[in-house]
């Protein structure tokens, strides 16, 4: 009983924390402020399907994007850009100071793999796991976010 109560209180405190957090300027990469911190933490993350198979197309791509967006919303992370190519995903995401890049990747890979493998069994049953164990992570500030976006656009052929 005490464990359940502690869990509920922890969840409520996180919800209140997310609701109370404010940004100095909406829509820009400005510092976020909360009761004890001022921060601007943005990661550029890239990860690939196992064997870099070009499977992220059509309905699977759309569903993958929905799942990434849902998990980020659940965790209170702001997606600045998500680009899904047939053989990899680029994500620029703004996170909390307590969230490491490896934690963000772990959450997103685990969540998307769980649901995509259930919903697209015929496609994904041939792969031993959906995602490779590797990933790319880089921090991105207000200046470099534009450079990263240009790089992603160049890969898309824009």
Can you put this structure into words, describing what you see?
It is a single chain. With 158 residues, the protein is of the alpha+beta class. It has two domains: 1-37; 41-156, Transposase IS200-like (Alpha-Beta Plaits). It has five helices and seven strands, in the order αββββαββααβα. The chain has helices at 2-20, 58-75, 101-119, 121-124, 142-156; strands spanning 22-23, 32-33, 38-39, 42-47, 78-85, 88-94, 136-139. The strands form two sheets. It has a four-stranded antiparallel sheet with strand order 5-6-4-7, with helices on both faces. It has a three-stranded antiparallel sheet with strand order 1-2-3, with no helix packed on it. Helix 2 packs across helix 3 (101-119). The N and C termini lie far apart (56 Å). The model is unreliable at 15-27 (pLDDT under 50).
Task: Please supply descriptive tags for the structure shown above.
2 domains; alpha+beta; four-stranded antiparallel β-sheet; Alpha-Beta Plaits; three-stranded antiparallel β-sheet; single chain; about 160 residues; 5 helices; globular
Shape: globular
Tally of strands: 7
What is the helix tally? Answer: 5
> What is the CATH T-level topology of the largest domain?
Alpha-Beta Plaits
What is the domain tally? Answer: 2
Unreliable stretches (pLDDT < 50, length at least 5) are: 15-27
Per DSSP, what share of the residues sits in E-state strands of 2 or more residues? 15-25%
Strand order of the largest sheet: 5-6-4-7
Order of helices and strands: HEEEEHEEHHEH
**What's the overall average pLDDT, rounded?**
82
Helix content: 40-55%
The largest pleated sheet is described as: 4 strands, antiparallel
């Amino acid at each position: 009983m005490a464990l359940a109560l502690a869990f509920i209180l922890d969840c409520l405190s996180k919800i209140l924390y997310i609701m109370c957090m404010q940004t100095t300027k909406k829509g820009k990469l400005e510092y976020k402020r909360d009761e004890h911190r001022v921060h601007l933490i943005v990661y550029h993350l890239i990860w690939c399907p196992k064997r870099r198979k070009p499977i992220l197309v059509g309905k699977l791509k759309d569903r993958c994007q929905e799942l990434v967006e849902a998990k980020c919303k659940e965790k209170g992370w702001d997606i600045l850009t998500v680009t899904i190519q047939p053989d990899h995903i680029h994500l620029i995401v703004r996170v909390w100071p307590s969230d490491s890049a490896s934690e963000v990747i772990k959450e997103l890979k685990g969540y998307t793999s769980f649901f995509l493998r259930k919903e697209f069994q015929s496609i994904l049953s041939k792969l031993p796991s959906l995602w490779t164990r590797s990933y790319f992570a880089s921090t991105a500030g207000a200046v470099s976010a534009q450079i990263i976006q240009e790089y992603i656009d160049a890969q898309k052929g824009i």
